[in-house]
Amino acid sequence: MTHGKKAFAGLWEVRENLSAKVSTCRNRHPKKCSIRPSSSADCEGQGHWGIADCLLAQDLFAFHGEQQRRRLAPLADRMRPRTLEEFEGQSGILADGRLLRRAIKADRVGNLILHGPPGVGKTTLARIIANHTRAHFSSLNAVLAGVKDLRIEVDAARQRLERHGLRTILFIDEVHRFNSAQQDALLPWVENGTVTLIGATTENPSFSLNAALLSRTQVLTLKPLDEEALESLLKRAADHVKRPLPLEATAREKLLQLADGDGRYLLNLAEILYDQPEATTLNTEQMLELVRHRAPQYDRAGDQHYNLISALHKSLRASDCDAALYWLARMMIGGEDKAYILRRLTRMAVEDVGLAAPEAIGRALEAWNCYERLGSPEGDLALVQLTIFLATAPKSNAAYLAWKQAQQLAQQYGSLMPPKHILNAPTKLMREEGYGLGYQYDHDDPDGFSGQNCFPDEIHRKQLYAPVERGYEREIAKRLAYWQRLRERKANQG
Fold first, then answer.
1. pLDDT, tens digit, for every residue of 135-190?
2. Residues 354/395, Cβ–Cβ less than 8 Å
3. Does residue 369 have a pLDDT over 90?
4. Residue 356 falls within a domain, yes or no?
5. C-alpha distances in angstroms, 19 versus 34, 52, 55, 381, 477?
6. CA distance 118 to 326
7. Domain range for residue 68?
8. Do 239 and 216 share a domain, yes or no?
9. Does the residue 83 lie in any domain?
10. In a shared domain, residues 367 and 319
11. Quick check: helix, strand or coil at residue 300?
12. Which partner for 167 in 135, 256, 482, 488 could form a disulfide, CB atoms 3.0-4.6 Å apart?
């Protein structure tokens, strides 16, 4: 211990403070004193100074361990910002004068959900809040923590508040991984102010968090880092490493594109490049041989999944063939299930193309069958061709609208009987009651059309289906107009 005191200035004072702390605690609460060395070393029986020495030794080891960890940590971790001034991007929520920045500076941060893609600074922002707050800061990772861990943190927070009036900020990383029961367990303590919650999530909180918890938090969306913020990160990295990034200008631009708004990924790529000999300057081709070209961000169960299928659907509806192909490529490169894409394309054939091009349903099913027989990559072209066909086909949702109106009409009038003349009469009793009486067999009519009423007697005839003047529905519209003229003529003759 003597060597340790000489090696580190100020640690003797730490020893004295620890000793006094132990002495005070043991004198007041001899049986309940919780001040113990956290290691397995046996410090009991050594007196207050011995215990303090053990605690000091552990602090020294922890100091050395932290220094060693930071030395070996990835570049992104070593460069993690510790102040708002060092934080890159997110000016929309952190610019001077913004509410969140003022709240952090004033140590008045409320319940927050930080939502955004990976590598945009969610965890870093939480740590910066921790550095600025006078409250106790605790953290959990929802992947590893359960209800038991949550209760331990809440109990500790309640004791701090009751005994010392000290607030607790509880940071939960990947909070969307908490199931409904875990979120329910957290809710009362957020509600009564025992903890101030800061959650970080890559999933849309509207889908991943229950409504009760969501209503008690402010959701802040962090955006992917723009080129300016990414460039600033590279300059900071050069200052940290003390040499410029070994890339030609065009290769540097390509590196920023590869990052795709992810600051952590950018620094991971930069670290690979810094491992090259200092005299080396890489062009784009040489750089791409060293770094992995990451697929665009895509989560098959999260925001990207729903956002991109929505973009594909609306591009097809808008007959924008090129945009539809782009969104299709994004989904397929991201690893989306091809069966899911085909199911949605088939739905688009039914809902948006409709009877304007009735062959669309058959085309969709043929593409589905083709892909199942060929698989990837050859079968991928079946999806491409179907996308082009649907995008360039005439569109009509007339059948969809007609069906909606038919449902509303059925609900409005309840259980009305069909008119008796269009009912079968297989028994004598039914014939006596008028079933089938007056029925006109359309094929016996010279026009092949009787014009008889098929709605319930209580409902005046309604037009539910209104075809559009596009594609095959033009022909349907002509037929419907012809039959209406016949119906009116026969009604006048009768």
1. 898 989 998 888 889 899 999 999 999 998 888 999 999 999 998 888 988 999 99
2. yes
3. yes
4. yes
5. 14, 5, 9, 75, 94
6. 23
7. 2-72
8. no
9. no
10. yes
11. coil
12. 135
